[in-house]
Amino acid sequence: MNSKFLRSLVCLALLGGAAAHAQEYPTKTITMVVPFAAGGPTDTVARLVAQSMGVKLKQQIIVENVGGAGGTIGAARVAKSAPDGYTLFLHHIGQSTAPALYRKLTYNAIDSFEPIGLVTDVPMTLVARKDFPAKDFKELLAYVKANKDKVTYANAGLGSASHLCGMLFMTAIETDLTTVPYKGTGPAMNDLLGGQVDIMCDQTTNTTGQIKAGKVKAYGVTTKTRVASLPDVPTLNEAGLPGFEVAVWHGMYAPQGTPKAIIDTLSGALQVALKDPMVKQRFADLGTEPVAESRAKPEALKAHLKAEVDKWAPIIKKAGAYAD
Ligand code: ASP
Prior knowledge:
Layout: H1 3-24, E1 30-34, H2 41-57, E2 61-65, H3 72-79, E3 87-92, H4 94-101, E4 113-129, H5 137-146, E5 152-155, H6 161-173, E6 178-181, H7 185-194, E7 199-203, H8 204-212, E8 216-221, H9 236-239, E9 247-255, H10 260-273, H11 277-285, H12 298-319
Parallel strand pairs: 1-2, 1-3, 5-6, 5-7
Antiparallel strand pairs: 3-9, 4-7, 4-8, 4-9
Helix pairs in contact: 2-8, 2-10, 2-11, 4-12
């Protein structure tokens, strides 16, 4: 047998093995890391999607919360995980802001991950504790400016969406507030409900229920148009901050090196989950909707992430925000 023929045989055997492996995937429980505390908005999105993808994949997907440092601790964990399809990652816009905000990341936000697809774009809301002494945005502005040394702003750490929204808000109103960082806005919301912290800007997936129950005051949504599930809440644009706009996109990833066949299987399951009536209904109740199928794909997330990294770097540089 000549050596070229032998090499071809070995290649064919290896390819056959890889294909069989991908067909078998998944054979055990999958873990989806969320880089924020349980009970918050990223966690909510992840749990809904994980549940539905698990049905399609016939394996359970459990969510593991690895909060801290604006999502970068969870991201670092996933970047070092085995690229075998059993560790997934659901993160938001923070994946694109971290490279500019953190000088010492142990991973590369683009190269250390295999994109699976975009998941959803979620509006944010500016909310305050129930007894905050301002009935609308105009009063909020006057109060915050007059009491800037004592008003506290909750966020989920540098690079979180709540940090980003707060940074844009404080820049727009030219007032710096004391920020109180949490491992996620789930626990931050608990403190807002308890009156330990004053205001926060967070995804509708965390605030809608509390706004509707009258447990927090809402002053505005961060999108250009009002949110269907919160028709009485004005946009911040209307309320007095022209041009204010931020929506929190969410993407799903696996560690770099995860085989393409597995990524394709996961992306297919994500696309099915985003059409699941249960997911669509829950998303709608929480002020959001799944992305179109064409965006729930690896190439779409890859291009989006890259564009967002490029978009935020100069904004963050200008704001002078960073962590060592
Ligand atoms: N909403 C949070 C943020 O500000 C994160 C979370 O707890 O999901 O980024």
